[in-house]
């Protein structure tokens, strides 16, 4: 005899409804076995796999342009080691750069690059006065996907020698999200830009994707880069918006794909446009392809004994770092490059850091070392 779920009215009486009830009970059982008390708890866990939601926090004290994450853990992986050359491929506002230079007075050469000229300007200001350090600091505008070519042009001897330490700090910085004119935020209205390199006036923008790409292509990036389950529906919404003049601003896009951000008991829910914004930004800047290229190049730029640290902010990035590091640690190639994983699982922020800087909650760091042979 088939029994319907106690939550279904017996007057409905269809086999389909009974099956739905049984599925609901089975799903609840599975969730409990996996440690979730409810479907909401499982959803919250899933949301943690998306890039951290930069929700404006009311009552917060005014921040510095950008607060670097996992600084203590980053420095610990170079503690007690001689670091004479260091390469920061995403120097940003100079947060990690300042700390590593201060922690290693033996540092002779620090090289920093960034694709964002606005961030580079802040880094120059931050690193202009480094008391107690004799390091030569070289900062320049570049995309890390071209690091070997750019380094060869600027300092071929240093490239040949290799670096004792290299850092890749991925994702968005606070200063980029908090600038409406950059188009990264779904809370602040501005042009739908999303270019990391603001000097690339002819570069692809999120506005061009929304107003010119096909529904199939938009759906693909929503599915692959945003891991958005509603990708087909949202792609159609974006294309249909062209009938009303198209999508020009971040407010337009947030309204089309997310509607109103629900408050009340759903106040803590992630903004419904979060995955769409992430997907478009990744597509505009070709981030995942650039990351794959950068890890391969950075690992080959290490000196024997040198360490490469990568900080990621969402599951797509971390997955690439994890598997490329694993592959590197298993391969001994013809030029005697061999590596050892120093982090079997990603390093994350502790409770104290999260309390001071909520934007570090999704940060994960992995570190690999080139072996001396």
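-> sequence recovered:
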């Amino acid at each position: 005899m088939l029994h319907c779920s106690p939550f279904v009215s017996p007057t409905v009486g269809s086999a389909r409804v009974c099956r739905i009830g049984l599925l609901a009970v089975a799903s609840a059982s599975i969730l409990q076995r996996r440690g979730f008390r409810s479907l909401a708890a499982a959803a919250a866990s899933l949301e943690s796999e998306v890039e951290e939601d930069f929700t404006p926090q009311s009552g917060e004290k005014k921040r510095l342009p950008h607060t670097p994450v996992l600084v203590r853990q980053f420095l610990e992986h170079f503690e007690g080691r001689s670091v004479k050359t260091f390469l920061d491929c995403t120097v940003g506002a100079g947060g990690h750069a300042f700390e590593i230079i201060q922690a290693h007075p033996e540092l002779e050469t620090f090289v920093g690059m960034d694709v964002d000229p606005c961030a580079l300007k802040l880094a120059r200001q931050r690193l202009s006065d480094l008391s107690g350090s004799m390091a030569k600091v070289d900062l320049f505008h570049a995309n890390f996907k071209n690091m070997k070519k750019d380094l060869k042009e600027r300092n071929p001897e240093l490239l040949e020698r290799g670096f004792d330490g290299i850092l890749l700090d991925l994702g968005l910085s606070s200063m980029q999200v908090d600038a409406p004119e950059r188009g990264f935020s779904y809370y602040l209205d501005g042009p739908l830009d999303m270019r990391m390199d603001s000097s690339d006036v002819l570069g692809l923008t999120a506005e061009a994707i929304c107003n010119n790409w096909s529904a199939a292509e938009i759906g693909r990036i929503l599915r692959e880069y945003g891991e958005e389950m509603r990708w087909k529906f949202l792609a159609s919404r974006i294309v249909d918006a062209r009938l009303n003049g198209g999508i020009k601003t971040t407010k337009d896009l947030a309204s089309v794909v997310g509607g109103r951000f629900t408050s009340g008991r759903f106040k803590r829910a992630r903004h419904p446009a979060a995955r769409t914004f992430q997907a478009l930004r990744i597509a505009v800047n070709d981030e995942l392809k650039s990351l794959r290229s950068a890890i391969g190049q950075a690992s080959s730029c290490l000196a024997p004994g040198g360490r490469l640290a990568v900080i990621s902010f969402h599951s797509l990035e971390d997955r690439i770092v994890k598997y490329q590091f694993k592959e590197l640690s298993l391969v001994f190639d013809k030029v005697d490059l061999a590596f050892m994983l120093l982090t079997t699982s990603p390093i994350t922020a502790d409770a104290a850091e999260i309390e001071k800087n909520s934007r570090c909650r999704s940060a994960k760091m992995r570190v690999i070392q080139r072996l001396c042979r």
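The longest helix spans residues 15-33.
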